[in-house]
Design brief:
The complex is a heterotrimer of chains A (about 300), B (about 350) and C (about 270).
Chain A (H helix, E strand, L loop, with lengths): L17 H25 L18 H8 L1 H33 L5 H9 L6 H12 L6 H8 L7 H4 L1 H26 L3 H9 L4 H28 L4 H6 L11 H11 L3 H29 L3
Helix pairs in contact in A: 1-13, 2-13, 3-8, 3-10, 3-12, 5-8, 8-10, 10-13, 12-13
Chain B lengths: L3 E10 L2 E11 L4 E5 L6 H9 L6 E6 L2 E2 L10 E4 L11 H11 L4 H14 L15 H14 L4 E5 L7 H18 L2 E6 L2 H7 L2 E6 L2 E6 L1 H6 L4 H6 L6 E10 L4 E5 L4 E4 L8 E6 L4 E4 L4 E10 L3 E7 L6 E6 L9 E6 L5 E3 L5 E3 L4
Parallel strand pairs in B: 3-8, 3-9, 6-7, 7-8
Antiparallel strand pairs in B: 1-2, 1-4, 4-5, 9-10, 11-12, 11-14, 12-13, 14-20, 15-19, 16-17, 16-19, 17-18, 20-21
Helix pairs in contact in B: 2-3, 2-4, 3-4
Chain C lengths: L4 H29 L3 H4 L13 H9 L2 H32 L5 H12 L7 H10 L6 H25 L3 H9 L4 H12 L1 H17 L2 H6 L7 H6 L9 H21 L1 H8 L6
Helix pairs in contact in C: 1-13, 3-13, 4-7, 4-10, 5-7, 7-10, 10-14
The chains are: A mainly alpha (about 300), B alpha+beta (about 350), C mainly alpha (about 270).
The structure holds adenosine-5'-diphosphate and magnesium ion (MG).
Chain lengths: ~300, ~350, ~270
């Protein structure tokens, strides 16, 4: 027998997890806070990359300038319109397609592959193909269809630029919603549907009382993932409208990009960045709560 | 040689103490069973012994050496998990040899040791199968084989039979008993099933709510339960526990009024008016012509080898009585019951035993 | 659910209509890529024409396609491998040794993903410029890895959670250290999950446009940035645009189709079974 020991002051752990967590947490901390701190700093500076004579402390001037410019408020409205419209379209179509492709029919698995294809198409390609091949008011396929049906072709990017962008982005994200909701549909207990039928429920009631509640959780996942990516939509605007005509499709994201890498106004872009972060945090607060409720940790 | 010593072991999960100071010495080659209702902390304690769970307080010694901070694989203990925890992507042989492979044991020796263990457990025909292609009982044997191969200082079992069907459970229980006899190594076995505990253990440790209620051989626990909890936990059907009050005492024997009004005399001096609980094992109660506790039979269970009757004697719980299989009691019958010999246990208001049949 | 032949027919027609409409832009792009520039802008649009490979040869030999392709492959593979290497130990620790902060840590990681990239565009641009990482593969690999890291950690975490903890503990009893546990036990058991995490990371990196466009010019420009150069008015040749686009999309589309089942598991954070 060795001499009895009492609890030592320093109790070693059987399993250290911090060396495993450090790399991830470390780089994410750097990634999350260093640039943000710099953005905050820049937002109070007079700083232009191409004009070194502009320098010094700016106080709140960058913010003032930004908040007073009519483009700013419009850009936030545009951002919300874009995100909101695409979310609604993708969720509605996603549920509809999920229910449709959950049915057995000839060639379903091939048809399903075709439906999810847009998810794999890079945003720049999607935007260019839609803008030119499909939506061109003279030679585009849509114009041809409109003319054949006796309508005047719509010049989307001149007259309804935001609708045009929403269409493209929604096309890219409908497959994502479909894919996830379809997977969820397949775990729906068929007996539940049969029980509902025995209780006299018809199609719409089955959708309302059985299918939609079952899809509630996956729908929040779709909502979260899409919001993350939709708030950052950039390429689709960059290659189609460049924010125009006027500022009609300039979202906050795009506005900051213009300030930053077109006018090289670092101070102004940084002030916009800070506001974008605040906006995103408001959304994130809501989203993270939803996720925390809906995903088992 | 393997002695395990637990000194005031404690486990705290974020401010909740689930193991509240356990002192216990497990002797070399002893088969110790931890038994208790589920949620009482048996698995937690076993996992602390295994090294899978940190020890929040106290000391744990193996052969006199404090091993609180020694990682699980360095403690020389092997564990059989309730879910078996076999590696699904490895064959039976690979599963059993895995620890040896990690320890750098050369392949010929590995194969040899796996073969020996496989023969003992009749697994030699299954060595190349994957766990998915085994029956529940076979998986269970592989899990045991994986432990044997390591030639551990002690075996830890966490409810190893709970995923088997009833027939297989009895058979495997016997095999484990035989294994202990053959290997002669220290074993700690966790179960919530008191029958497993009674049949396997050299010593049983009864747990409740993170504390030891009593330690003893199966018969000690059966005959001399230290308190109401152990009395109610050990034995099947359960001991009858009836509230009682001392009516009179003559210095050698006392007469108790049981809940429901029957009188009962015990060979012990007690203070009149004292409230206590009397414990009567169903197998120690007989039907008598008159006197004793009168009750109406409410349910009769014919089990073939015996008959269990439940009679209402006016107490909160019906009186459970074990009768011979040819007994012809009928539902609704009024019978008189008396304890056979001096076989009652008495517990004070705090639940501690103040008299046991053999004391 | 029993349905009449008529219902079945209607479902099939509906299903195929939806499928063809959704796929039409891609199909039309591929079709146009085989047209001459004149046929491409023909009105009414041509379904029958003399196919030509001239656009592909043009894009491959005269454009920067091969360079951009190499960059795309390097960036998506590089950032994915790097991300997995960093994220796996963390996900392992959180899945099998959770403590009272694990949940908060995970949510914090996810919340970093919600920070808008534009908010930090300027600092990242300047940091890359100062450190010489602007328009380099390493720079883009790093940024792409960082921006996908929260998603990678989350997905790995959910997949690791599905591995029974008992098996990990059994391997610890058997003497497996962290590396052996990851390699011999976790990798085989969570293999499909790790694969679907890798797939999603590759696809996200391949299609990422914001950082690709803003942090590269010539040397490190991946396909997303390469295609964006076709938006300049002087580059507007529909057939060549289509050919370049087809070449940019085809690898990942085929890859995605082949692995779609794996992918879904990853996309839903394990919240949908
Ligand atoms: N990781 C944990 N965190 C918090 N409480 C736990 C944890 N593990 C077990 N417990 C609690 O500890 C108690 C004992 O659990 P356990 O040892 O599994 O019981 P038993 O094996 O006897 O059924 C239970 O009340 C359980 O809820
Ligand atoms: Mg247990």
């Amino acid at each position: 027998m060795t001499k009895p020991t009492t609890a030592p002051p320093h109790r070693k752990k059987l399993m250290h997890t911090w060396p495993l967590l450090t790399p991830t947490v470390g780089v994410l901390l750097l990634w999350a806070f260093v640039p943000l701190a710099m953005t905050l700093w820049f937002s109070f500076q007079r700083y232009n990359l191409v004009d070194p004579t502009i320098s010094g402390f700016a106080g709140f001037n960058n913010y003032k300038f930004l908040l007073e410019s009519p483009a700013f408020l419009l850009s936030i409205v545009n951002e919300l319109v874009l995100v909101g419209a695409v979310l609604i379209i993708t969720l509605v179509l996603g549920v509809a397609f999920a229910v449709l492709f959950d049915q057995e029919f000839f060639g379903r698995s091939v048809a399903r592959l075709l439906v999810i294809a847009p998810f794999f198409v890079m945003p720049t390609v999607a935007a260019l193909i839609w803008k030119n091949l499909l939506m061109d008011p003279v030679n585009g396929v849509f114009a041809f269809v409109a003319r054949s049906l006796g309508f005047t072709p719509i010049d989307w990017f001149t007259n309804y630029p935001m609708a045009g962008v929403v269409m493209i982005v929604a096309w890219e994200w409908v497959p994502f919603a479909t894919l996830i909701l379809l997977t969820a549909m397949q775990s729906l207990d068929r007996q539940q549907v049969e029980a509902a039928k025995m209780d006299g429920a018809r199609g719409p009631q089955i959708l309302r009382y059985v299918i939609l509640p079952h899809l509630a959780r996956p729908m929040t996942i779709v909502l979260m993932m899409e919001t993350i990516y939709l708030l950052a939509v950039f390429a689709e605007i960059f290659v189609t409208t460049s924010g125009g005509p006027g500022n009609a499709t300039t979202t906050l994201t795009y506005l900051i990009y213009l300030r930053a890498l077109v006018s090289f106004d670092v101070g102004g872009a940084a002030a916009g960045g800070v506001l974008a972060v605040i906006l995103a945090n408001i959304v994130a607060l809501f989203l993270v709560r939803t996720v925390a409720r809906n995903v088992d940790l | 040689m393997c002695t395990l010593e637990l000194r005031n072991l404690r486990k705290v999960y974020s401010n909740v103490e689930v193991i509240k100071g356990v002192d216990l010495t497990i002797k070399d080659r002893e088969f110790v069973v931890f038994v208790g209702p589920s949620g009482c902390g048996k698995s937690t304690l076993l996992r602390m012994i295994a090294g899978l769970e940190e020890i929040s307080g106290g000391d744990f010694m193996i052969d006199g050496v404090r091993v609180n901070d020694v990682p699980p694989d360095k403690r020389g203990l092997a564990m059989v998990f309730q879910s078996y925890a076999l590696y699904p992507h490895m064959t039976v042989a690979e599963n059993m040899a895995f620890a040896l492979r990690l320890a750098g044991v050369p392949k010929p020796e590995r194969d040899e040791r796996v073969m020996v263990a496989a023969k003992t457990l009749q697994l030699d025909a299954l060595l190349e199968r994957k766990p998915a292609n085994l029956s529940g009982g076979q998986r269970q044997r592989v899990a045991i084989g994986r432990a044997i191969v390591r030639q551990p200082k002690a075996f830890l079992f966490d409810e190893p039979l709970s995923n088997l069907d009833a027939a297989l459970r009895v058979q495997t229980r016997i095999e484990i008993a035989k294994l202990h006899n053959d290997l002669k190594s220290t074993m700690i076995y966790v179960t919530h099933d008191q029958v497993e505990a009674m049949t396997l253990a050299d010593r049983i440790v009864v747990f409740n709510a993170g504390k030891i209620e009593q330690v003893g051989t199966p018969l000690e626990l059966y005959h001399n339960p230290a308190n109401l909890f152990v009395a109610g936990f050990i034995g099947s059907p359960k001991m009858n526990l009836i509230a009682a009050e001392v009516r009179s005492s003559d210095g050698r024997t006392s007469v108790l009024t049981l809940e429901g009004g029957s009188l009962f005399s015990v060979p012990k001096a007690l203070v009149p008016g004292q409230k206590l609980t009397i414990g009567l094992r169903p197998e120690h109660i007989a039907v008598v012509a008159e006197g004793g506790m009168a009750g109406r039979v409410e349910v009769v269970e014919h089990l073939g080898n015996e008959t269990i009757a439940y009679a209402s004697i006016g107490a909160a719980q019906p009186l459970t009585v074990k009768l011979p299989s040819d007994s012809d009691v009928r539902i609704g019958e009024m019978l008189h019951f008396a304890s056979r010999g001096q076989t009652a246990s008495l517990f004070d208001e705090a639940g501690s035993a103040i008299m046991s049949p053999s004391a | 659910m029993r349905s009449s032949p008529l219902q079945k027919f209607i479902v099939a027609v509906l299903g195929w209509t939806v499928a063809l409409l959704m796929f039409f832009p891609v199909a039309w792009m591929v079709l146009t890529s085989f047209k001459t520039e004149i046929d491409a802008v023909h009105s009414p649009p041509l379904l029958v024409f003399h196919p030509t490979l001239a656009n592909f040869t043009h894009v491959i030999y005269l454009g920067n396609y091969l360079g951009a392709l190499t960059n795309s492959v390097a960036i998506s593979l590089g950032s994915t491998v790097l991300g997995l290497l960093i994220a796996m130990p963390a996900a392992y620790a959180m899945a099998f040794f959770p403590n009272r902060w694990t949940k908060d840590l995970l949510l914090w990681m996810l919340s970093t993903k919600m920070m808008p990239a534009v908010g930090v565009l300027m600092p990242i641009y300047l940091l890359c410029q100062r450190s010489g990482l602007l328009d380099t593969l390493s720079g883009l690999i790093l940024v792409m890895m960082l921006s996908n890291l929260p998603i990678i950690v989350w997905m790995l975490y959910t997949f690791f959670k599905e591995v029974p903890g008992d098996i990990i503990e059994a391997s610890r009893m058997d003497g497996a250290g962290v590396l052996a546990q990851l390699r011999v036990v976790l990798l085989p058991l969570a293999g499909p999950g790790i694969a679907s995490t890798a797939l999603l990371s590759i696809i996200l990196s391949w299609n990422e446009a914001f950082w690709s466009i803003n942090l590269t010019s010539v040397n490190a420009a991946p396909l997303t940035a390469f295609i964006a150069t076709f938006s300049a008015p002087e580059g507007l040749f529909w057939a060549k645009l289509s050919a370049a686009s087809t070449l940019a999309v085809a690898p990942i589309l085929i890859f995605g189709w082949m692995t779609q089942r794996q992918l879904v598991r990853g996309l839903t954070f394990g919240a949908v079974k």
